[in-house]
């Protein structure tokens, strides 16, 4: 029987999932059956025109009413405010769920999603896996595993763009990105899931403390329409302490801007007592540079290597890894407890802003 995949929400990101499914079908086990629904009928019609092999359904209820099969997958590709509710309904219908990032609006919702998945005996995965499993990340992990950097004490994760606000500079038709009640937040909710997923993939902490955080919305000459809320942060930062499985502690200086007035910058750098590494963590064009800094007889040395990425494209990864994992293959999929832990770190930055208190996020902790 053919694999069945259901997509809820047929906007911008749904098209990437469908393309990935098409490509995957060509190379692997045959094209799955694809069912789609959207509350906006124009969006649904446009999707079917683009992917005529997909079958439109009236609504979520009719989609989930159909008896489930063991390997059914629902992709939740709607705005964040709907993620927890749609995911839980899909899990309760007996289907695995691959949810878009950010996983949820807050820690409570994320915990409920995990609990529901466990009760249903199904998987809840997160699409924050788009940069997971890169060869360059494996090289960085290798340096850490071999102790090449000595005792690691600091990470700088600084990702600054001047004008890259979702809902304004990027995908302006989706103004919901600017409405906190729908998006959960600004650039942190939008790009933070990838930052935290990559940081966690490299450092593999089991506990993270948010020691300090700040967020703001720089003023610019491109205001959105007066009726559109523009209340979300576009520049944010946090000082975090990552507790590693080997007992080590690392301070992470984190900054993310989709709008700022200073220099654009992308820095992913780990420093230890024996050396440092910085790397192109995104490998957007299929390869990236890794710089290893060391000391040779008292002189600073830097060696540079270009690392090619032999993995899937970033937009293909979430659904393909998820399908492969369900089929029993080892992949860097981000699932269940790890998905909730990653998201909870992000949500805890907002909790710090709200309360002014240090936040602790422990892997596997139950509310
Ligand atoms: N656009 C991107 O490049 C991108 C990249 C990665 C992840 N994402 C994530 O994907 C999700 C969707 O983003 P998008 O860019 O596709 O948004 P979008 O605005 O293009 O599309 C969202 C669609 O969801 C539909 N929808 C809203 N509520 C619904 C409901 N209750 N039931 C069914 N359909 C509903 C809307 O009508 C719309 O067609 C977000 O969580 C976003 O962060 C987007």
Automatic annotation (TrEMBL):
Domain Gfo/Idh/MocA-like oxidoreductase N-terminal: 4-123
UniProt xrefs under InterPro entries: Gfo/Idh/MocA-like_OxRdtase_N, Gfo/Idh/MocA_oxidrdct_glycsds, GFO_IDH_MocA-like_dom, NAD(P)-bd_dom_sf
Boundaries of every GFO/IDH/MocA-like oxidoreductase domain copy: 139-277
One Pfam family it belongs to: GFO_IDH_MocA_C3
Oxidoreductase listed as a keyword: yes
Statement: the UniProt record of this protein carries the keyword Transport: no
Keywords, ordered alphabetically: Oxidoreductase
Coiled coil (UniProt feature): none
Protein name: Gfo/Idh/MocA family protein
Top-level taxonomy: Bacteria, Bacillati, Bacillota, Bacilli, Bacillales
